[in-house]
């Protein structure tokens, strides 16, 4: 039969031998006849086709077995290739420059790989990818004591039936960090309501290392950086403690002879007062508080505040208090009443926060200590009705050589935010425009304006900025040219277009005079932080 004419077909299975697979295939005539339903096969053709079909199935089974053998060989070959690739990768790693680096250099590199939030999130929350690269890198990272010596606990004690398990887990993480930190100095940051009574095992673990704790910071659960008090009872001797922030009203008994920076109500704190360099305290200065303050003769940064509007000195001891090394003084609310007692010949930076002008109608007369100051910061005094220019201008006019003025509006906590933008203190800013007929602030070379409100700067505010720039960039002889005008707000993109004509102006130091800074990464402007500014003193 022509339709069943044999057409041999062979597939070679090896390029080096005669191993091959052969079978017979139908011709094109067979394919055409199979598609032609009008020409049925004859009886003889049917018998021949049935015999041929049986042979085709036999050939298929043989072909399948050949394929299985080849696929098995191919799978083995692919596994072999994977082993070769793995070997090549390992050789490349060994030949990599990073494997030839000294351990000290690799440790420096490892420090740059710490995940974002390592120091600002609670311990155990972030995974350090460097520790998961290889066994040697993990060993190196665990032997680096300093990354594990910063312990931050944002903790609420658990009161449910599973509380014991949760508390044990927190304690285990802390003990792991303490072990990995070796003998490196410890920094302890506590937020929430963690106390020695809530999780005694955790406190016992921490206090066993009290001899190497250099910093304790109590940060209450708060909003936008505003703290409302923190209570941590501590009754341990801290021989190396250099920084302590304890804003709670509860009494504490801390013996810290080497303390350098303290933020406290001064209740139960027993440092060597003459060793303190930074002190922040709140409350009426009387009795033991006032006596302790008189012993802080080496202070370089001092912050005094009182939450009440009008708090006169309650002590009859009105002798002058001398701080011969003090360079930064921050005063808030009723603490302004102590200013006449302060003898601060080296004062350079004065920060004034939220003074009630109604209660302290003559408070600017108490600030003769500002004579040597070169930098004044006014915080939260931007509302013109509360702080008229007739009171603020005399303050900034006291220094004989004022070089920098900062005006800061903090972002209010949500509970106190009425959503209203009060604008900048236009009357005060207007007095900063240089007037040749009545020259003032002749040494002012830097102006910083920060607003934490959602609204940012208004058109009228920007007009005043332009007038300040125009009048002070090229003043007449005898007046220092403006070197820097820094504007900071939550959203600064619109400022670039509104003040585009001033962005290229440069001062005598060849640096840009107008600096526009966005605080959008934080979304708020928090309260003053004298500790951050005085970090080098701790």
Q: Summary?
A:
This is F-box domain-containing protein. The protein has 538 residues and is an alpha/beta fold.
What does the model show?
- With 538 residues, the protein is an alpha/beta fold.
- Among the domains are: 2-94, no CATH class; 374-538, Leucine-rich repeat, LRR (right-handed beta-alpha superhelix) (Alpha-Beta Horseshoe).
- Helix content is 28%, strand content 19%.
- The protein has twelve helices and 20 strands.
- The protein has helices spanning 28-35, 43-95, 103-111, 135-143, 163-180, 200-207, 287-294, 389-396, 426-430, 459-472, 493-498, 530-533, and strands at residues 7-12, 20-25, 150-155, 186-192, 213-219, 243-246, 254-256, 261-264, 269-271, 278-282, 301-306, 321-322, 328-333, 342-343, 349-353, 375-379, 404-409, 446-451, 484-489, 514-518.
- A 14-stranded parallel sheet has the order 3-4-5-6-8-10-11-13-15-16-17-18-19-20. Strands 1-2 form a two-stranded antiparallel sheet. A two-stranded parallel sheet has the order 7-9.
- Helix 9 links the parallel strand 17 and strand 18 (446-451).
- Helix 5 (163-180) runs parallel beside helix 6 (200-207).
Salient structural properties:
538 residues; two-stranded antiparallel ribbon; 12 helices; 28% helix; 14-stranded parallel β-sheet; alpha/beta; F-box domain-containing protein
Write the layout of secondary structure elements.
Blueprint: E1 7-12, E2 20-25, H1 28-35, H2 43-95, H3 103-111, H4 135-143, E3 150-155, H5 163-180, E4 186-192, H6 200-207, E5 213-219, E6 243-246, E7 254-256, E8 261-264, E9 269-271, E10 278-282, H7 287-294, E11 301-306, E12 321-322, E13 328-333, E14 342-343, E15 349-353, E16 375-379, H8 389-396, E17 404-409, H9 426-430, E18 446-451, H10 459-472, E19 484-489, H11 493-498, E20 514-518, H12 530-533
Parallel strand pairs: 3-4, 4-5, 5-6, 6-8, 7-9, 8-10, 10-11, 11-13, 12-14, 13-15, 15-16, 16-17, 17-18, 18-19, 19-20
Antiparallel strand pairs: 1-2
Helix pairs in contact: 5-6
Protein name: F-box domain-containing protein
Organism: Schizophyllum commune (strain H4-8 / FGSC 9210) (Split gill fungus)
């Amino acid at each position: 039969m022509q339709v069943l004419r044999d057409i041999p077909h062979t597939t070679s299975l090896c390029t080096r031998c005669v191993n091959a697979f052969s079978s017979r295939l139908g011709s094109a005539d067979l394919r055409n006849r199979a598609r032609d339903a009008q020409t049925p096969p004859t009886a003889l053709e049917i018998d021949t086709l049935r015999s041929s079909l049986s042979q085709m199935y036999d050939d298929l089974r043989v072909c399948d077995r050949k394929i299985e053998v080849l696929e098995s060989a191919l799978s083995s070959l692919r596994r072999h290739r994977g082993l070769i690739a793995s070997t090549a990768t390992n050789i490349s790693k060994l030949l990599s420059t990073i494997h030839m680096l000294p351990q000290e250099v690799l440790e420096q590199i490892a420090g740059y790989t710490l995940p974002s939030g390592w120091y600002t999130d609670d311990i155990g929350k972030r995974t350090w990818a460097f520790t998961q690269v290889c066994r040697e890198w993990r060993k190196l990272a665990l032997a680096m004591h300093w990354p594990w010596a910063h312990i931050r606990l944002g903790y609420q004690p658990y009161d449910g039936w599973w509380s014991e398990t949760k508390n044990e887990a927190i304690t285990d993480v802390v003990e792991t960090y303490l072990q990995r930190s070796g003998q490196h100095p410890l920094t302890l940051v506590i937020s929430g309501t963690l106390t020695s009574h809530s999780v005694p095992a955790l406190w016992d673990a921490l206090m066993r290392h009290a001899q190497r704790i250099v910093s304790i910071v109590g940060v209450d659960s708060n909003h936008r950086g505003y703290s409302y008090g923190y209570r941590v009872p501590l009754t341990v001797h801290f021989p190396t403690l250099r920084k302590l922030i304890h804003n709670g009203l509860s009494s504490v008994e801390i013996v810290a002879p080497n303390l350098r920076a303290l933020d406290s109500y001064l209740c139960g704190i027993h440092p060597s007062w003459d060793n303190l360099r930074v002190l922040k305290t709140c409350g009426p200065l009387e009795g033991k508080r006032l006596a302790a303050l008189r012993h802080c003769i080496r202070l370089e940064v001092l912050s005094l505040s009182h939450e009440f509007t009008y708090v006169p000195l309650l002590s009859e001891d009105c002798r002058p208090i001398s701080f011969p090394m003090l360079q930064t003084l921050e005063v808030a609310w009723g603490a302004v009443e102590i200013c006449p007692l302060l003898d601060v010949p080296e004062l350079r930076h004065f920060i004034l926060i939220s003074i009630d002008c109604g209660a302290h109608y003559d408070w600017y007369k108490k600030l003769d200590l500002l004579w040597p100051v070169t930098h004044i910061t006014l915080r939260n005094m931007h509302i013109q009705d509360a702080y008229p220019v007739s009171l603020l201008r005399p303050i900034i006019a006291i220094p004989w050589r004022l070089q920098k003025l900062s005006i800061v509006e903090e972002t209010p906590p949500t509970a106190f935010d009425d959503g209203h933008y009060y604008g900048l203190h236009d009357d005060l800013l207007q007095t900063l425009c240089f007037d040749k007929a009545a020259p003032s602030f002749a040494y002012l070379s830097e102006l910083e304006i920060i607003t934490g409100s959602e609204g940012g700067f208004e058109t009228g505010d920007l007009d005043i900025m332009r007038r300040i720039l125009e009048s002070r960039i090229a003043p007449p002889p005898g007046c220092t040219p403006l070197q820097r005008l820094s504007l900071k707000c939550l959203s600064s993109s619109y400022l670039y277009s509104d003040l585009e004509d001033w962005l290229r102006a440069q001062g005598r130091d060849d640096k840009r005079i107008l600096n526009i800074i966005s605080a959008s990464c934080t979304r708020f402007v928090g309260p003053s932080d004298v500790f951050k500014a005085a970090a080098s003193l701790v």
